[in-house]
Design a protein that fits this description.
Blueprint lengths: L3 H6 L2 H10 L25 E5 L6 H10 L3 E5 L2 H5 L13 E3 L1 H4 L4 E7 L10 H10 L3 E11 L8 H21 L5 E7 L8 H7 L11 E4 L19 E5 L4 H12 L3 E6 L4 H11 L2 E4 L7 H11 L3 E6 L14 H24 L3 E10 L2 H5 L5 H22 L4 E7 L5 H4 L3 H9 L9 H12 L10 E4 L8
Helix pairs in contact: 3-8, 9-17, 11-12, 12-14
Bound molecules: nicotinamide-adenine-dinucleotide.
């Protein structure tokens, strides 16, 4: 279902007219999205202003930005700037060192604030001092990343307060910049995980995270580190399974993984066999026509995995809704929704793991939903299943970590697919506007988040729920 207001706002004359006439119409900013597969320098020549911290994390952050091709301008205390050492020099991307006064209201595509040295409540003033003069110069669809340390590992109560304050700050900032199509997110980096920050930072600072906003993402050294992989075609030689690949988010995900070099096994129900066969041909992958609820489904999946010598990525994307208030819900609708959305995910993951078909450093990505976080009228079955996914992911992460296997959930908000096209028109229109960006996401936005979690460079992220919801106004 086309979004009329978004189409209207793509036309500069119409935008101007709405503004001039002062019409009470929201004009969502058309989002800038990535084109094609990943390259070595996703931030090539992008102006990035970085607030450095007096901490061991800053050099890693600056190095990741410089390696990604960014033109970094670094501000901070003399000691913090000294701490950068020769970052970026090897590839001709030495950050320019300056101070905030000299910067004035300069323009930037990305603002990165390293708050990893926050130890006292007064340190929060540095947020105002940095963002107040620089926000006006942030580009349309610009990106903001605040980097901090976990409040639950703070040495003092004051440090915990300062660290946790970043969460509220980022969520509010995301609401303020959303109308310009921009996003703000928080990266929480545990001690000892400094060298895992590059992958998540590359993602959050780029347009691949266009529909991710107002989110905290934690980076840890819990899972065994992945061997280094190239930034271009990082999934070359790897095998991925995507369930529910015939359409919507699954189809976009299969395409995104194939773009990064993976051989994708595209799984969907037998009634979608021809759509799946066509997609698999196009992506040079393989089709697998299986109903996840069929008694032989697990055998078929493990056989396909065994044929490839094990798998490196599984995306549990297949999902259904059977909405009714609990009072009116038939037992069949309850069962079906839980069986597809949760029971099958748990059973397939366990079967692959038990049969040692998840290769070392494999990636498991499960589709949850904002519904599983915030709840939704008429969706007790669906929300129970999608919240169950979050429990599963959190519980399995430590068990799988020893072999470097990560497991995460992606929780989409309102995404323009068949599932949301089926909503009553009025409800759909309200639902698609209830986020910081004032528009629905596209399947590719979710696919990009899944692809990020499927990469070797996401080895610092496990047991997490990454929301792809434009900063939905519902849910924590
Ligand atoms: P969709 O209905 O467009 O596609 C789902 C696919 O799953 C279909 O191709 C379907 O055939 C397949 N599938 C369903 N049951 C199956 C079974 N028993 N065996 C094999 N395949 C089966 O849905 P979508 O909108 O692309 O959603 C994909 C995932 O994202 C789902 O898990 C959904 O719950 C989740 N999600 C979607 C949204 C949204 O706004 N669209 C929001 C939150 C979460």
């Amino acid at each position: 279902m086309a979004d009329f207001l978004l189409e209207l706002s793509k036309n500069p004359q119409a935008r101007k007219l709405v503004q001039t006439l002062g019409l009470p119409l929201p004009m969502p900013e058309p989002l800038q999205r990535p084109r094609g597969p990943r390259g070595d320098r996703p931030l090539a020549d992008r102006a990035v202003t970085l607030r450095t911290a007096e901490s061991t994390l800053t050099p890693h952050v600056a190095d990741a930005l410089a390696r990604a091709g960014a033109s970094v301008t670094a501000v901070g205390t003399a000691a913090a700037l000294d701490g950068l050492g020769d970052v970026g020099e090897a590839f001709g991307r030495r950050p320019i060192r300056t101070d905030l006064e000299a910067l004035g209201g300069s323009k930037a595509r990305v603002l990165v604030f390293d708050a990893s040295d926050f130890a006292a409540i007064d340190d929060l003033d540095r947020l105002w001092e940095f963002f107040n003069p620089l926000l006006g110069g942030l580009a349309r669809c610009g990106r903001i990343v605040v980097v901090g340390r976990p409040a639950d590992q703070a040495p003092t109560a004051a440090a915990a307060a300062a660290r946790n304050a970043l969460d509220g700050f980022v969520r509010s900032l995301a609401k303020e910049v959303g109308k310009r199509g921009a996003g703000a997110n928080l990266l929480i980096v545990e001690d000892g995980a400094e060298d895992r920050v590059a992958g998540p930072l590359r993602f959050l600072a780029s347009e691949r995270a266009a529909y991710v906003s107002g989110q905290p993402l934690r980076v840890s050294a819990r899972a065994k580190a992945a061997p280094a992989a190239p930034e271009t075609r990082p999934l070359d030689g790897k095998t991925a399974v995507v369930t529910g690949a015939a359409r919507g988010i699954g189809r976009a995900t299969a395409r995104a993984l194939a773009d990064e070099g993976a051989h994708v096994i595209c799984l969907d129900r037998p009634e979608d066999a021809s759509a799946v066969a066509q997609l698999a041909r196009e992506l040079r992958g393989s089709p697998l026509a299986v109903d996840l609820l069929a008694p032989d489904a697990i055998d078929a999946i493990t056989a396909a995995a065994r044929e490839r010598g094990g798998i490196d990525v599984i995306v549990h994307n297949a999902g259904i809704t059977r909405d009714k208030t609990l009072l009116r819900m038939k037992r069949e609708a309850w069962d079906l929704c839980l069986d597809v959305n949760l029971t099958a995910v748990a059973a397939i993951t366990a079967a692959l793991s038990d049969a040692k078909l998840l290769r070392a450093n494999a990636r498991v990505v499960c589709l949850s939903s904002i519904g599983g976080i915030a709840g939704n009228m008429g969706q007790t079955n669906y929300a129970a299943a999608k919240a169950g996914i979050i429990g599963l992911v959190r519980s399995l992460a430590p068990q799988l970590a020893k072999r470097g296997v990560t497991i995460n959930a992606v929780a989409p908000g309102f995404i323009e697919t068949r599932m949301t096209a089926a909503m009553p028109a009025g409800v759909r229109e309200v639902a698609r506007r209830l986020n910081n960006l004032g528009q629905g996401g596209l399947p590719v936005d979710v696919a990009e988040a899944v692809a990020f979690l499927a990469l070797p460079s996401s080895d610092g992220v496990t047991g997490q729920v990454l929301r792809v919801c434009g900063g939905a106004l519902v849910g924590a």
